[in-house]
What we know:
By secondary structure, the chain is mostly helical. The protein has helices at about 1-40, 40-95, 110-125, 145-165, and strands at about 100-105, 110, 130, 170-175, 175-180.
Amino acid sequence: MASLSNVGKDIAELHQATEALVRAVSSQLKTHALKYTEESEHGWQSLSSDVKSIKHSVEQCQSTLLLISGRLQCLQSSIELQEKIRRLQWAIDHVSLNEFNCRNSEGELLVSSTILRQVLMGFMCNNGSYIDMYFIGEQHHHRRITPEGQERFKEKLLYQIQSLIGFIPRIHTEGTKCSIWYE
């Protein structure tokens, strides 16, 4: 993906260089045109025609470069989407790595891989998942949600996701609601 972004930068630099070339050629031709104008009117018309032809060729090059740049951006987006899907499919296939026990808001014992599979499937559809109803219970009151239990669950889940997809997903907290997103 890095090479595609470099190609995009190269195209932008080529576009700028092409514009600079047009300005330089135009300036040179004007200088020579003044010299030829003194010699003959025919020389001026010939040079003017050459300048127009060069400008037209440069404009065609610029249009082609813009078209290539647009297609490269589409290609880059497609590759990034394929990489995301491949990464998430691998993670879904391996959700049992680093799994741990947790509880839902009713106090039922769950394995994190069950929750993680739902989260990853949501990521595939560009959706987030609420995770504030899960917690890791303390020994003496393991069936009640506590802020500490919720935080421990979130930390362990983030570690598990990071070990599967290679980065920490985005956490969004609004009031008491906490959701997790791919990006």
